[in-house]
Amino acid sequence: MSRLQDLKNTVRSKSIHVCYVNVGSCNGCDIEILACLAPRYDIEQYGIYVHNNPREADVLLITGAFSPQWEDKLMELWEKIPEPKVAIAIGNCPISGCVFNREGSYVDPPVRKHIPIGAEVPGCPPRPTEILQAVLSLAPVVFKDYEGGNE
Amino acid sequence: MSLSVIWYLKEFIRSEWLRKFFFVKTAPLETPAHFRGFPQTTENACTHCFACKMICPAPGAIDVLRDGETWMPHIYLGHCIRCGLCVEACPEDVLTAGRLLEVQKIDQTSYASTFHVVIDPELCKRCGNCSVACPVNKEIDPYLAGTGTASSEEVIMRIIRGEMRVIHPEKCTGCKTCEETCPNHAIRVARVVQGVQEERS
After folding, report:
1. Is residue B19 part of a domain?
2. Is this complex scored with an ipTM above 0.90?
3. Contact across the interface for B79 and A120, Cβ inside 8 Å
4. Which residues of chain B does A98 touch, with a Cβ-Cβ cutoff of 8 Å?
5. Which positions in chain A touch B35 (Cβ < 8 Å)?
6. Which of B70, B94, B110, B176 is buried most, with the most CB atoms less than 10 Å from its CB?
7. Are B144 and B89 members of one domain?
8. Is residue B22 situated within a structural domain?
9. Among A98, A20, A101, A24, which residue's Cα sits nearest to residue A68?
10. Total structural domains in chain B?
């Protein structure tokens, strides 16, 4: 049983499906996520696939300082992701609101108030290597020894 | 046709190809040392002049905290945007990031700051609170602080012929006492920072 579990863990940690959502960012972090797809960083060699479909995803990357339009939609989106799942906050905006979090602005950070966040990657924007490192180190932990039916 | 298919299959079962397909990855990408990371503190002593905190564009990214007898700037991750302005603004080189300090030494660049004092004549009701409360004015003209009537022309601002006039804005230290005492929010103090470069011989 444990050997089968090990095999499952190995295979699952090499097949990470990612969905990313912009909840009101300046697009800087989205461009850094996009850079991960390019040959220089090449996330597909680690088995990370970007789907942009929450129903297929394991990892949700969140960028942006949470604008009011997302108040009902983000939770809905999070519930669509099948277990096991994890959300990673990319950049300063979902952590603190960064430069948008000023008096009189309509953003409502941090995003961890709205959905459970597994990891936070600081930076404005974070480097592609930092995003990659966060996904690669967190996903195996989330998938480890996961068996359905606990829901 | 069939030959080329066989050729392809032969290529794909080559052990070299199989090994590369499954195991070869691009080398782990290391962050070069000259990349500007989050500012780190050096061994220099902080004089808590708050130059770093004043220039920081991100809210809540830097604070100068007291640790016993010494002061030290503290960077908050999740707020800091790695712009490096605090590193360049610090006169004592307490912070470092990437090769900013080296470049600054080579280029002989620094930041010079001045304070602009602006009074909105429509909001100002000529009460003179600002000129009386100003600590710099008090030092220049103690008579002004005592009686509320200025006799000196050397003060930062005073009422001249019924109008509040800013005479010597260059003497302002940016304490913003005037802003706090103004009942009408008519006076504003703004810090203006300029990058300066020394003439190279």
Report:
1. no
2. no
3. no
4. 58-59, 79, 81
5. 127
6. B94
7. no
8. no
9. A24
10. 2
